[in-house]
Write a structure and sequence with these properties.
Elements lengths: L16 H52 L21 H4 L7 H4 L21 H4 L17 E2 L12 E2 L3 E4 L20 H4 L30 E5 L17 E2 L18 H4 L9 E6 L4 E5 L4 H6 L18
Parallel strand pairs: 3-5
Antiparallel strand pairs: 1-2, 3-4, 4-6, 6-7
Length: 321
C-alpha cells in the first residue's frame, strides 16, 4: 500500500516589531519631505488667486474710468463741503464693471448716510453689507465670513460689515498727523484737514476732486493703486463703506504692530500687509499686478504710491516679482 504523503505547511513569515517601526519611520520621513512641497504648492496657488483677484479689481477700476472718465471715487458718510454723504465707496462703485453687477443692483446708494440712515446705511442694505465678497478676499487669509461692527457713526449702531483684504492707496500720508512713521500731511478727511486731495488715488472725499488719467503724471504703470491688507490688524477694512476701503504707505510693508489694538492703534495700523511669505501683492494703475517684497526701500515704496509727485522709481524692479 502506498502511503499518501501530506506536504508540510511552512510558517508564514511575519513582520517583527523592529521592521514595523522601521517602515513607520520611513513613511514618516517621506511625509515630512512631502509636506513642505505641498504647503509651498498651496501657498503658490493662494498667491496666484490673490493676484487674479487684484487683476479683476484693476479691470473693474479701468472699466469705471472708461465709462465715467475718472477713477472710482469715495463719498464720505457724513456731510462734506455741502455734499450728500452717502458713504458709497470705490469698491461698491466698481461692482457694475465686474462680476458683481447683479449684486450692485440690490444696493441703495442715495441719500445721507449719517445721521438720516439712508445711502449705504439704508436698513435694506444691512444684510447685503455683511456678506462675504470672494473677489474682495485673499484666500491666504482666514477672513471668509468675518464681519466688523460699530463702524464710526454707523446707523444702526450694530451694523455688521463684511471685511476685505484689499485697499485703495491714499499715498504715504501721516494718519491723523500723529502716527509713528510720519509722512505727508494727513489728507483723508476734508472737514478736519481741509486738503482737497491725497497724493494717491483713493481717499474719503475724492468725489470732490475725482482723479483722472491726466492726473497720473508719474504714469499709470508707475503708480500702485491697490494693495493687500489684513483685517486682523485694523478695524477699518470693509468693502461696503468708503472709509473702510483705504490705507496708506507710510508704515513699512508688512509692519505688524505689537500689541495689536485695531481700534485704538489705527493711526499706525492702516498700512499694507499680507499672509504671503515675504511680501504682498499690489495692483498698478494700468491694471498689472506685482508681488512687492518686504525688503523694498521705504522711499521707493512710498514713491510708487503717488501719482504725480515725480519720485524716481529707479531700482524698484529689484523688489518686484
Amino acid at each position: 500500500m502506498k502511503s499518501r504523503l501530506t506536504p508540510m505547511r511552512g510558517k508564514r513569515p511575519a513582520f517583527t516589531l523592529v521592521e514595523l517601526l522601521v517602515v513607520i519611520a520611513i513613511i514618516g520621513i517621506l511625509i515630512a519631505l512631502l509636506l513642505p512641497a505641498i504647503q509651498a504648492s498651496r501657498e503658490a496657488a493662494r498667491r496666484t488667486q490673490c493676484s487674479t483677484n487684484l487683476r479683476q479689481i484693476g479691470l473693474g477700476i479701468l472699466g469705471y474710468d472708461n465709462s465715467l472718465k475718472h477713477f472710482p471715487v469715495c463719498h464720505p458718510h457724513f456731510r462734506e463741503a455741502g455734499l450728500v454723504g452717502t458713504g458709497l465707496g470705490w469698491m461698491v462703485g466698481i461692482m457694475p464693471y465686474t462680476e458683481l453687477g447683479g449684486f450692485y443692483k440690490n444696493l441703495e446708494t442715495k441719500g445721507n448716510a449719517y445721521p438720516l440712515g439712508k445711502g449705504m446705511f439704508t436698513p435694506s442694505n444691512a444684510p447685503l453689507l455683511r456678506q462675504t465678497i470672494n473677489l474682495f478676499l485673499c484666500p491666504a487669509d482666514n477672513s471668509i465670513g468675518k464681519t466688523v461692527s460699530n463702524v464710526w457713526l454707523a446707523v444702526p449702531a450694530d451694523l455688521q460689515l463684511g471685511v476685505t483684504n484689499y485697499q485703495g492707496i491714499m499715498g504715504p500720508h501721516n494718519a491723523g498727523n500723529a502716527s509713528l512713521f510720519g509722512g505727508l500731511p494727513d489728507c483723508n478727511n476734508y472737514s478736519a484737514q481741509g486738503i482737497s486731495e491725497c497724493s494717491g488715488v483713493f481717499w474719503t472725499h475724492s468725489v470732490l476732486l475725482p482723479p483722472t488719467l491726466k492726473s497720473f503724471r508719474d504714469g499709470t504703470s508707475k503708480t500702485m493703486v491697490i494693495g493687500e491688507a489684513l483685517p486682523e490688524f485694523s478695524s477699518w477694512l470693509y468693502w461696503g463703506i468708503g472709509n473702510g476701503t483705504l490705507s496708506r504707505t507710510s508704515p513699512p510693508l508688512n509692519w505688524k504692530p505689537n500689541p495689536n489694538n485695531p481700534w485704538t492703534g489705527w493711526l499706525d495700523q492702516c498700512g499694507f500687509r499680507s499672509r504671503h511669505k515675504g511680501g504682498a501683492n499690489f495692483g498698478w494703475g494700468d491694471g498689472h499686478v506685482t508681488f512687492i517684497v518686504n525688503e523694498i526701500d521705504q522711499n521707493l515704496y512710498r514713491g510708487a504710491s503717488t501719482r504725480k509727485l515725480g519720485e524716481s522709481l529707479s531700482g524698484i524692479d529689484a523688489f518686484s516679482r
